[in-house]
Amino acid sequence: MGRPVIGITAYVERVSWGSWVDVPGALVPHRYVRQVEDAGAIAVVIPPRPDADDGTALEIVERLDGIVLAGGVDVAPELYADERHASVQASRPDRDSTELALARASAEADLPVLGICRGMQVMAVAAGGMLEQHVPDRVGHHDHSPAPATYGNHPVRTVAGTRLAGILGEQVDVPSYHHQSVLRHPGYVASAWAGDGTLEAMEDPAASFRLAVQWHPEVGTDPRLFRALVEAAFAAR
């Protein structure tokens, strides 16, 4: 049947290479691509569209075997009807609209999905949930995101009986870089927690494979989540 095709959401950013300076480019950290390919799939980049809607998202979903909703900037708080905290990053409406539409379309189609960091938050917001806009206000530390461009590392404990626990076991150390987390997640069950009470993963028990983590497995050395996604994508074909 050939290898599954996994889409990875991305930015459009001003980038430079060779003689080309400050040119718009579709950009995603190559670690995502490498992990998907090492797990046995073909990776394709999904750039955000300023005109994205559910119809466009459905067209994309119909051509894929799975999706990685990748990390990135904060989801606009206005999309979950909350006032903007001073720490919230400048919004990226093109990513918000594209990824929220992809989250809805993939859920409707039961397409295998792995949400990573922002991707987990997008999935929660698309389902009508709500985010905690600045975790340090509650936990009193910055261990989840210790410094700019610096990943934290901390243990998370999975919830017994969940798909995530079956993949990773009872506890795992994870690389993290986030100052927000999911507060409400309609349709999903919690599947991992940090010791400070921060929700670290969620999943849809009714889906073939619809799982999200707050950490960044693409920067670590543990390939199990990407392998599980690719296995689910192959089975779904």
Automatic annotation (TrEMBL):
Entries under CDD domains matching the protein: GATase1_2
Organism superkingdom: Bacteria
GO molecular-function terms, A-Z: gamma-glutamyl-gamma-aminobutyrate hydrolase activity
Protein name per UniProt: Gamma-glutamyl-gamma-aminobutyrate hydrolase
Protein species of origin: Terrabacter aerolatus
Keywords: Hydrolase
A GO biological process held by the record: polyamine catabolic process
DNA-binding among keywords: no
SUPFAM superfamilies in UniProt: Class I glutamine amidotransferase-like (SSF52317)
Alphabetized Pfam families for the sequence: Peptidase_C26
GO cellular component: cytosol
UniProt xrefs under PANTHER family: GLUTAMINE AMIDOTRANSFERASE PB2B2.05-RELATED
